[in-house]
Amino acid sequence: NDNMSVRNFHTVRCSANNENVARTAQTFQDLAVQAKVQTNLRVCRSTHASMGLVNSHQVAKGDVLMRVPTTAAFVLDYDSGLRLPASARWPRLRGSAAGSSEPLPWDILQALALVDGLAGDGGEFWHRYCDELLPTPEQLTLPMCWGEARLAQLQHADIAQAAAAQQARLTALFPELMEPLAPDVPSWLQWAFACVRSRAFRVGADAFAFIPFLDFANHADGPTNDQRPPTVNGTPCRPTANADFCMTPTTSNDDERGEGGGSFFELVALRDITPGEEVTICYSGPEGYTNQRYMAQYGFVPRGGNPADRIRLELDAEHQAAPLELARLQDLMGDALFLAALRGTDPYVFAALKSMPLKDDDPRVMDASSIHRPTAARENDASVRTAMSLLHQVEAQIAEGTTPLEDDEVMLAGPAGEQLLFEDPRLAAAVAYRIERKRLLGTAAALLRAYARGNAR
């Protein structure tokens, strides 16, 4: 029965305790051999209290860390179509694609493939991969997998509303697959869709792939153009990605890999990597994503500030005609803090400034040689009225918070925070999201108040 329920299928909990890490690592190795994957990477607990890929020997820049045959992946190319292992039935995927009056998007098709895989209708390999290596539904930290009570924990109406809209979209398409598995547990379609959205790769202009084994690579900031991350006293602010993936062209090598020939998805080292170092990729590209996008698509936010984050501010014609003066902000902040923001060592200030309408140079290209001299605040200055209007908007967003920032920070600090990550990863993700949002909003509010009052620090 192609419409059989999958709600009773067992999934192995992938929490990162020692027993589960060992079991997952062994399954990863066994399935990699079965899929003819070439790699020396192994699975172990990562710094994010999840699981990741760890290097086991010295690697030089340019070395291939993992090579996955393209025939082992789900690949949807809008030019050439959908490629799946031909030996399985894939009834939900094939039936839905054939029966839909409108072409289904790539993420829905691949989600249906994962549901088929979990149900055992995609072959033994995909049944084990979905059942034993992918996270369980109740562990997914993407908001589109959460009910109303959990969405409220984000303390941000915009992201909660977007998650509810995504759930409504899936329900309209496949109501029979959207039945919750249990109270506070998402449906199998939510599970599959979240896995696709957080783990799939873009492999061409209009091509997307769910690549097993590569999907274990965790995120780190993108390397800068000169491969040197921002530093404080010579120490990197946080790690940057040390690997990237690519697709090799098909070769004439015919070794029973099927229609994919000798083509592979490869994970390649961007720099030398030492034994025991986690192998990471950048999910967002060098420009980064906002925290709302990170949370919605991947279920986490960068901790300690995100220069690419932004505050949503409504700018009418009056605000656009009277932007804030960057030179005055510099005077209010002081040269040291101002330059720290420009260099990326204070990402909250940088993100706050980039959220505001600014008159003068772009903060991303300014340096010490272009520091402006103080400018006196003028009474009834139009830009002061802009600052006041923006401040009201920021304060309204701060008011969405129902818990103090200090209490949130305590929840994730020290051993108690580590325990929360294991016991309730969804709550931990929500608290991390609202901590970062409150810090950014608080920074913006402080800058706008100072600007409106004309009080230099």
Provide the fold topology.
Elements: H1 18-34, E1 38-39, E2 42-45, E3 51-54, E4 64-69, E5 74-77, E6 81-83, H2 91-99, H3 106-119, H4 124-133, H5 148-152, H6 157-173, H7 188-199, E7 201-204, E8 207-210, E9 218-219, E10 231-232, E11 235-236, E12 243-247, E13 264-269, E14 278-281, H8 291-298, H9 317-321, E15 324-325, H10 326-333, H11 335-342, H12 347-355, E16 358-359, H13 382-398, H14 405-412, H15 414-423, H16 425-453
Detailed description of the structure:
GO terms for molecular function: protein-lysine N-methyltransferase activity. It comes from Volvox reticuliferus. This is SET domain-containing protein. Residues 39-284 form the SET domain. By secondary structure, this protein is of the alpha+beta class. The protein is built from 16 helices and 16 strands. The strands form five sheets. Strands 1-4-13-12 form a four-stranded antiparallel beta sheet, with no helix packed on it. Helix 12 (347-355) packs across helix 16 (425-453). The chain starts with 17 loop residues before the first helix and ends with a helix. The model is unreliable at 1-15, 226-236, 252-260 and 364-377 (pLDDT under 50).
Give a summary of the structure in a few sentences.
By secondary structure, the protein is of the alpha+beta class. It has 16 helices and 16 strands. Strands 1-4-13-12 form a four-stranded antiparallel sheet, with no helix packed on it. A four-stranded mixed sheet has the order 2-3-14-9.
